[in-house]
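Lab manual, section 2.4: Encoding a predicted structure.

Procedure: take the sequence of the chain (282 residues), apply the prediction step described in section 2.3, and record the output as structure tokens. A sample record is shown.
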Amino acid sequence: MRSNPPTQPKLVGPFIRLAFVACAFAGLPAIAAPVEEAPPATNAPPTAEKPAIDAHADALLRRMGDFLAQAPFYSVNAEVWQDVQLSSGLRVQAGRTIDLQVRRPNRLHAEVRSTRHNRALYYDGTAITLLNRVHNFYGAIPAPASLDEALDVACERFGITMPLEDLIVSDPYRNAISNVVSGIELGPVTVLGVPCDHLAFSQATIDWQIWIEQGATPLPRKLVITYKDEEGSPQYTAILSRWDLQTKLPDFVFTFEPPHGVTKIDVSEIKSANEARKSEGK
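Recorded output:
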């Protein structure tokens, strides 16, 4: 999983970047590699320590990743909450909603709304456009013809992370598992009434948990990322609902049409504003 800073999480993960993490659970067994007697000294180079990942947890995560990777298109809603620290030092939770539509291999549309912000992001296979509906301006840049590459370009040029980019990448499982050092299955639980399997994984700088729907549609229903290297270990939480893998998404869904009176501005101005907001914890 891509491990974005808490002000710009990536599902999760980046995503976070992104990229999807074991928090400390009282009374739950710890995951650790078996202790073995040290081998005799040799001149051979040291081998990397094998991640201590429970086989069932790995299989469930792989099943979810493969299911998303093979879906030709989908829509999903996310309610996102994350810890932020205000300039006064007060820590609060900031919330927003995300409506995401994806059509592989090169289409994306996201609407991100909160009490203070209302933004839209369009990717049509040739360009990425970011629209600020509150201030009525937009910026656009040429983009490569794949979602994976477009995610990187958006981060580099706009200074933003694509919403829920960990679900969008072409191989969600590989993206999620690549930096994991341990993982465990925590058992069944429900998320908004949906029976799920609860998994937890750990990486060097983040811990993350994911709740995956049981049955024929192994969709992620909840994600929590804990940023261990940040003061106070802030968290990012996304509740995923209204999954739709049946409704086809035509080209116009991903095509940006400038609203009346909108102003086009330079992309570097948007990036500077986004970076300033991140430094202020907004």
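Check your result against the sample. Residues 105-169+250-282 form one domain.
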